Amino acid sequence: MTGQPALTPYVPRLLLRHLDETPEAAVRRFDGTLVFVDVSGFTQLSERLARQGREGAERLADAIGRCFTTLLTVAYEPGGGLLKFGGDALLLLFDGDGHAERACRAAAGMRSALREAGRLDEGGVRVKLRMSVGVHSGECLFF
User: Do 35 and 106 touch, CB atoms closer than 8 A?
Assistant: First the structure.
């Protein structure tokens, strides 16, 4: 891949491919499936853990990290790529053969994984995380 290898883990695969294959193009167009995953329950956890001060903040950060590590592990297995992480949401891209089916399988798998991983007990604060999912399949344009 082009660019700085040290930055590769922090840059979406889509952008790395674009820089390798068509660096002069302002737009990249292809068929794919986008999956938007929004996890709810962190606000409630955050409010309750805030009463514990610094220790509560560390527990919150650890809980968020574990949750998204679990979800991304499920998404990466069938070829999903993280485009954007924002707060308590993920935007994933699946492209190539069978992208729609792989994306939907991953979304269902993430929901199933969250049923287990989303039952949190952090410092005596119990919360059950939930997730909403949106899926779009078809032509995708990236600028």
Answer: yes
